[in-house]
Amino acid sequence: MPEALKRKQKDGTLYQRPPAIEAWIEKLESVGAESRVLQFAGVSRMAPEYVPTEVLLYFLRRAWADGEHGQFEKIYRILMKRVDQSLCSKIWNSRIGSATDIRDEIINRFVVLVTKDCASQADMLDFYEVHFDQAMVALRTSVLRKFKAVVGDVTTVTLGSQDADGPEVSPEVAVALENFLCGNPQKIDDPAFRSVLFAAIDRLPQDQKQVIGLLLKGIPIDAKEKDVMTIARILQCDERTVRNRRDRACKALKAILEEEAEL
């Protein structure tokens, strides 16, 4: 029996998965985990045996909740491949920005949602289990609106830099930038400096920007505990690679900020 969703609609009733999704979940609950993963992968969306993405998400969340981290990583890879393929068919270069930048921003936001959902065992992804495509349309629309809101040549609005004060800067990023701040790390609390900092982050190569963005969200690079979502697990690389990207990003940020200070 599929586990009930927790999120409530405006009328106070719980979200309900469509009957077809419930039926798929019940069917696959009786299948072994490895066989289930094989059925998730490598099937055309037009094929009758194609498993809806809502069902993948259900088993992804259950795998994390049950401590089945090996299964979680396998399903996560399949899910993210589907998301990427879908975005590649729907997002293209335009006057508001690079298709790659827009797709990466959408993926980053979705990854943060998955991470927070795993960390809190809350209801953040409940609607995605009901209507995944509709939820992704809303996410895409939110990102595209921010890109369209940018004035001039800057066509990337990422990492929450449109917020009034910007996101919180993680201790790791703050320490890495301390040399540039001439021993005055409190400068990060200056709204004007934060604005310059986030604009500089937007100029980083995508792999470095991804790492800094996740650090800003408070996600650790690595952890001994298997039930902690980390940047290394999200990006599916080892912690040394993540730290190298972070170090290169901080070096680049220092150079950009020094250049800005001379203007």
Could you spell the SSE succession in H and E letters? HHHHHHHHHHHH
Rg, rounded, reads 20 Å
Strand content: under 5%
What is the 3D form?
A: globular
How widely separated are the two ends? 63 Å
Helix content: 55-70%
Sheet with the most strands, sense and barrel status: none
Low-confidence segments, given as residue ranges, are 150-166
Quick tags:
263 residues
Question: How would you characterize the overall build of this protein?
Answer:
59% of the residues lie in helices and 0% in strands. It is mostly helical. The chain is built from twelve helices and no strands. The radius of gyration is 20 Å and the shape is globular.
Short description:
By secondary structure, the protein is mainly alpha-helical. It has helices at 19-29, 33-40, 53-65, 69-90, 99-120, 126-130, 132-148, 171-176, 191-202, 206-216, 231-235, 239-262. Helices cover 59% and strands 0% of the residues.
Layout of helices and strands:
Elements: H1 19-29, H2 33-40, H3 53-65, H4 69-90, H5 99-120, H6 126-130, H7 132-148, H8 171-176, H9 191-202, H10 206-216, H11 231-235, H12 239-262
Helix pairs in contact: 1-3, 2-4, 3-4, 5-7, 5-10, 9-12, 10-12
